[in-house]
Amino acid sequence: MMKRLKATLCGFMLIIMLPALLSGCWERKKLNELAFVLGYGLDKVGDHFKVTMQVVVPSEIATTSSNKEGMPVSIYEFRVKNIFEALHEFTLLSSRSSYLGHIRVLVLGEELARSGIAPVLDVIVRSREPRTDFFVVVARDAEASEVLRFLAPLDKLPANRLFYSLETSSESTARTSPVTVDKLVDRLVAEGRNVALSGIQIVGDRTVEGDEKNLKSTKPRASLKFHGLAVFKKDKLVGWLDEEETIGYNYIMDEVRSSIGTVKGEDGKVIVMEAIRTSTKRKVKMINGQPNIYISVRATLNIQASQSTDKLDDDRVIRKLEKKAEERLIYLMENAAKHIIEKYNTDIMGYGQLIYQSYPKVWEKLKEQRENYLQTLPVHYQASVHIDRIGLIDESLQGDIKE
What we know:
Layout: H1 2-23, E1 34-45, E2 48-56, H2 58-61, E3 73-80, H3 85-91, E4 97-99, E5 105-108, H4 110-115, H5 118-126, E6 135-139, H6 144-149, H7 158-172, H8 181-189, E7 196-204, H9 212-216, E8 222-233, E9 236-241, H10 243-252, E10 259-264, E11 270-287, E12 290-306, H11 315-344, H12 351-358, H13 360-367, H14 373-376, E13 379-389
Parallel strand pairs: 1-4, 1-5, 5-6, 6-7, 12-13
Antiparallel strand pairs: 1-2, 2-3, 7-8, 8-9, 10-11, 11-12
Helix pairs in contact: 10-11, 12-13
């Protein structure tokens, strides 16, 4: 009886373990069989799509390679009826299979963005290969293919350069707003919120795109620069914010890590301040049956430069500068929101989302007005600023310079 029981248990164990042995590496691919796509660009050309793939050349970035005279990346472009078709077209030109698991940046051409990005995002998100931590940007007054063809000094891989530049700029300035593809999808389908994406533009001579001379020049004839925010209504681009409006938007959205601004001293001369810590609280209050939005910013600043003769070691002077900085923050937020609402009438600030999360029944009534609720929605902006440090000197050096 015991022998039969042991035999039965062994049989069950073999049945349980067998699938694990069979699963193996049924879909494995060797590294030398893959072409790693770092940059992915999508443009609209008539009723077709132009897909641009920036593929790394392994031999040109390998640390053991002694002869590196070629280009670090290769650019492949395909004009197709649907985006997925481009992956198959790639195999007709390359001995390797394209691999999207290391995409760093997805660039959307402006024309495509204006026609709607939902169809192209569906293909990207549905694929099992790409991760969701790459940034999505919009080419400003340009095609995505133009942006991805540009080479720049310091970084061998242009897509990496765009990724780290956007990441770094968001930590040191409030003039960009990095959005990964998973956050983009979440915001597109969210109640009461629209989307804003960082814009990338070509500065200088556009004819040098893809030219290695631009890579080796100490003064490049052209470069790529993040500039402003692309404003969307649903999934369609409707316009742009300038840099000042972008800063105000980022303060409203609590997406400022560090920022630089200026105020004027009593003599009208400039004092430069850096925000080293900021936080924004957003809430909804019902007043007389109507939702009111309250945006409250707290910021800690350091004085980094001064052309003013104001005595910065005087507490009364510091209080006045804090008050001016508070007024400046409120102006930035109010001006950004006013421009967005009056010109584009789209809720990229997520005020509708705040109402939906706090008072869903109230939001159901506001939804009947579509985006028109923004025109009459009361929004109250507040700012509290504390100047922490004034530097190692109290006054401007200009006042101490002798004849």
